[in-house]
Design brief:
The protein is an alpha/beta fold. Helix content is 48%, strand content 11%. The N and C termini lie close together (7 Å). The structure holds 6-O-phosphono-alpha-D-glucopyranose and magnesium ion. Residues 10-11, 20, 43-48, 51, 76, 113-117, 137, 170 line the site of 6-O-phosphono-alpha-D-glucopyranose (G6P).
């Protein structure tokens, strides 16, 4: 029986995936690194430090850890500054409606994000009230594809993983949901999220009606 939902933030609730892209692109241009949207897709769901390592691997470059941290901080400063322009109008289409619907029906709802900036993003969106539990990049040490962030959410909601549905836009996020024994909904293209239990191209199609129709035996 489904009693709870766990949402990734970036690329599910709001389009910060695009802001992350712009911030990494700006750093990459300054450093003379190759970086494009295909590489950016590999960064979905993974931590800041893992992300910079993926970018360096793509450029067949290595740097010492302290330099990596300095550059990751530089990217983060650009990203955080861009969040100042985010407003409660910046939910992805359908996200606010789904969260409102879940609240109205009394489901437990958790955030399960790898971002250390999740609190700031929720504040900008005025979204805190939709969540019973906030799991972010500060809540656990192992990031996706490890299931830890989702297990943190289910535990805090006092639910078993198979009582929860995870919403994710990242390949590593669906891997994490599966590793933890959660049901999963992928938001994005088949080639990235074909392994999710259910997939929608965008959040606009991910209504509670559709989700219940797909997982019907788990809602009765
Ligand atoms: C999310 C995004 C990733 C990002 C990670 C860490 O999971 O999908 O692209 O790298 O959070 O974000 P942060 O805000 O802590 O740098
Ligand atoms: Mg995401």
């Amino acid at each position: 029986m489904i009693k709870g939902f766990i949402f990734d933030l970036d690329g599910v609730i709001t389009d910060t995936a695009e802001l992350h892209y712009e911030a990494w692109k700006s750093l990459a241009d300054e450093m003379g690194w190759k970086f494009d949207r295909d590489v950016n897709d590999k960064l979905r769901g993974i931590s800041r430090m893992d992300s910079i390592k993926v970018i360096l691997d793509h450029n067949k470059t290595a740097l010492e850890e302290s330099k990596l941290e300095e550059l990751a901080t530089k990217k983060n400063d650009i990203y955080v500054a861009s969040l100042d322009h985010m407003t409660p109008e910046d939910y992805l289409p359908g996200a606010k409606e789904l969260l409102t619907h879940l609240r109205a029906e009394g489901f437990s709802v958790a955030l399960g994000s790898a971002s250390k900036n999740a609190i700031k993003v929720l504040q900008q969106l005025n979204a805190n009230g939709y969540f019973d539990v906030i799991g972010d990049g500060n809540s656990v040490s192992k990031s996706k594809p490890a299931p830890d962030i989702f297990l943190y959410g289910s535990e805090k909601m006092s639910l078993q993983p198979d009582e929860c549905i995870v919403f994710e836009d990242a390949e590593s996020g669906i891997d994490a949901a599966k590793a933890g024994g959660f049901h999963s909904v992928g938001i994005g293209p088949e080639d990235r999220l074909g392994h999710a239990d259910l997939r929608f191209d965008t959040m606009a199609e991910a209504t509670l009606f559709e989700v219940k129709a797909h997982f019907k035996e788990l809602f009765s």
